[in-house]
């Protein structure tokens, strides 16, 4: 069923606690944890607890939870004190864009200068 946990999904296993992560925030519908391979001083992933393969699919099926992900991304930036200097929310979608984990997630990057356009 749409949104159900997937046995072969890394981020579903982080939601269930089967794989450890450094969790920095949690809400009823989301978990935020530090990226294992950080690309900036602040690099946190915000994921929905439900499984959808990417952000747009999540938003189409569960718009309120997609909004929760964005709200929590902003809250992470405030917690990490990068909201003043600026931060970036990234939603890689598809392998050609660098998506490697096919459970929707928002990257929150901050704490250093961020170039535009991104690579
Ligand atoms: P994507 O490339 O799909 O947009 O982002 C996936 C992110 O998940 C990558 O930045 C990668 O470093 C991170 N990641 C992969 N495996 C793990 C893990 O086991 N734990 C954590 N905390 N992050 C992971
Ligand atoms: Zn999943």
Automatic annotation (TrEMBL):
Position of sequence motif Histidine triad motif: 103-107
Active-site positions on this chain: 105 (tele-amp-histidine intermediate)
Residues of the HIT domain: 10-119
TM segment ranges: none
A GO molecular-function annotation: catalytic activity
SUPFAM superfamilies: HIT-like (SSF54197)
Entry-linked PANTHER family: HISTIDINE TRIAD HIT PROTEIN
Entry protein name: Histidine triad nucleotide-binding protein
Organism ancestry: Bacteria, Bacillati, Actinomycetota, Actinomycetes, Kitasatosporales
């Amino acid at each position: 069923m749409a949104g159900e946990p997937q046995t072969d999904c890394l981020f579903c296993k982080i939601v269930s606690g089967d794989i450890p992560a450094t969790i920095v925030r949690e809400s009823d519908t989301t978990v935020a944890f530090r990226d294992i391979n950080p690309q900036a001083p602040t690099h946190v992933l915000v994921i929905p607890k439900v499984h959808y393969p990417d952000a747009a699919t999540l938003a189409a099926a569960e718009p309120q939870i997609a909004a929760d992900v964005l709200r929590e991304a902003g809250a992470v930036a405030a917690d990490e004190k990068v909201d003043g200097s600026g931060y970036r929310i990234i939603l890689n979608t598809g392998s050609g864009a660098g998506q490697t984990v096919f459970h929707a997630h928002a990257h929150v990057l901050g704490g250093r200068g961020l170039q535009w356009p991104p690579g």
